[in-house]
Amino acid sequence: MALGLSIESAKQFLGSDFEQYRQTLNTALHTDEPFLETINNYVLGSRGKEIRPVLSLLTSRCCGSLSFEGYCVAAATEMLHTATLMHDDVADGASFRRGALSVAAMFSVPAAVLTGDFWLARSLNVINTNCGREIIRNFDLAIQTMSESELLQLDKAGSLDTTEKDYLKIIYGKTAALFVASLRSAAIVSGASEAAVAAVEAYAKNLGLAFQIRDDILDYSPGLDTGKTAGADLRERKITLPLICALDNYPEKAPEVISKIGMIESVLGQKTTEKEELVIAEVTDFVLNGGGLEGATQKLQSYTDAAIQAISALPASQARSMLEGFAEFAGTRGR
Known about the structure:
mainly alpha; 74% helix; two-stranded antiparallel ribbon; 1% strand
């Protein structure tokens, strides 16, 4: 099942609820400041697939019914996610996002930082104004965890001693934390029982981990048409699961491999040298020939299976089937 098909099918299934979410999002982002409104319209015009708000809306449907609070949770999720992308593009020196110029490249770096701040503030305003304290706590914890994980990743890029435990902590914060905050909140505002909320939380955690692991696998898959530049993680000195698995298989080669990665010193956003590109190619070959992708894929499958199992106790419905389908997709996309 292709991502585009599953996303579009889910949006069609959600129907007017998806349109209500969109209206809530647009209303929350409205501003009388012309320059900011121009940037907002640019970002909204090049928005991604909106996987996170779709999952949030499906969760509300799965656990009960959608209400205005459910639309607010979905809108806050999209605003928070987009804010982090704008900030990430500044930190990474990225000129493009989703095939279009990033906000930093299209307008300016200060504009990207400040617009990201605005989207973050509006996401918190939406849930603070319309949702209860537990929902506020969910998103507050997600923001803290996301910030901490990015700093941990930055620190580990310097020390080059990332363990699998470190890696899982990093990707939980980078990706899974927002999945948990969004879907847990969606279940709560739909009136779900404590058991159902716990099931959704387990689904969200495992799904978020699976999504990030798959992205990290794709980084070592140059033969796939994924839209992701192969080797991007190594260019940033990130030690991700495929490399960790290969090093586990061949621990005697770890000092040599880590030493090679330490030779990558290019500043983010600047072109790597020929020597650095050679290092990236050598480490990539080590991962491909050392069972790194196979080991990471096996672990990925365990998380997708756990996500599906987590919501198996929820009442059977089309919404639950779609949530299961997204987990299955996370385990197969890019193959």
